[in-house]
Design a protein that fits this description.
Length: about 220
């Protein structure tokens, strides 16, 4: 999967989070929430190893995700925008007074569903390109995470490598289904062609036999 972890927070208070694999991204994300400068709306990205933490802060609500660096910027920020809209629409002003993880039971399922969608469905990126949205993402600079976290305080990011295999497995299954479908249609066409050929042969044989039987009568 391209997006491996995500959360929604008010300030440094995490309201909901979801992880697609075994990782300590949650602890690193909390450090980032504590260290992000200022309270203004912002779009920032921080890299650590080959993973990038993308952060979108709007009206005091922060949405964060950790993605593989191959995911680029458009897809992760499209995901963050989607999650922000869904969260605000679902909870409204309750966000202002919610306790830590107050929405986790319900909204973590939404995070999981959308993480999978933006990671594996090609329509996720195609739709945003058609809409022409996320133009502001082009100006988002990807900085090293050391910009916000002191080297001594920064945790080493640990990610279960089977997470990368999950995305490969999903794509392999889609290709396998497509291959089986192609083979099935090919077999159907061959079967139909064989049936037609047999019918033609039977017709020719019957025509020949009937012609052989009627020929003496004609000679009389």
């Amino acid at each position: 999967m391209a997006i491996l972890f995500s959360l929604v927070a008010r300030g440094s208070v995490v309201l909901a989070e979801c992880s697609a694999t075994a990782t300590n991204a949650s602890a690193i994300a909390r450090q980032i929430l504590d260290k992000i400068p200022g309270n203004n709306d912002s779009h920032v990205s921080y890299s650590q190893d080959r993973y990038i933490f993308h952060v979108k802060r709007t009206d005091g609500l922060t949405v964060l995700c950790m993605a593989d660096d191959t995911a680029g910027r458009r897809i992760p920020f499209a995901f963050l925008e989607d999650i922000h809209q869904r969260f605000v629409k679902t909870y409204g002003r309750a966000v202002l007074s919610a306790q830590a993880y107050g929405m986790n039971d319900e909204f973590s399922r939404v995070l999981s569903q959308q993480m999978e969608y933006y990671s594996d469905d090609p329509n996720a990126d195609r739709i945003n390109r058609i809409k022409g949205e996320m133009s502001q993402v082009r100006n988002v600079m990807i900085e090293n995470i050391d910009k916000v976290l002191e080297r001594g305080d920064r945790l080493e990011l640990l990610v279960d490598k089977t997470a990368n295999m999950q995305g490969n497995t999903f794509r392999f299954r889609k290709q396998a289904r497509r291959f089986r479908s192609t083979v099935w249609w090919r077999n159907v066409k061959l079967t139909v062609a064989l049936i037609i050929l047999i019918l033609v042969i039977v017709y020719v044989v019957l025509a020949f036999v009937c012609h052989g039987l009627t020929l003496p009568t004609c000679l009389q």
